[in-house]
Predict the structure.
Amino acid sequence: MQDLTPSSNSHDSIERAIIQERLRQAHYSFNLTLIATGVSVCISLASAGLFLFGKLPESGVTALGGVASSACCIRFAKDANDRLDKMLKELDD
């Protein structure tokens, strides 16, 4: 009869694949955060331009969009960082 318990070698390779996938996802999250930060900066600059040209209501709405984008960027970065910290902790165990 064949032994159905996984060998430590296959367990290590599965664990390594999971770690690589988590790193890939963290990398994509980081890149998405950089892109979102760039968009947020552009929105903030547009808001400043509207304010300088005297379009106060439009600048307020645009500034609110910039603040919302910044909040999302910060959350994305924190989530990616937390995932990496969790992975490092799991590796130490």
User: Anything to note?
Assistant: The longest helix spans residues 8-52. The chain has one domain: 9-85. The chain has a mean pLDDT of 76.
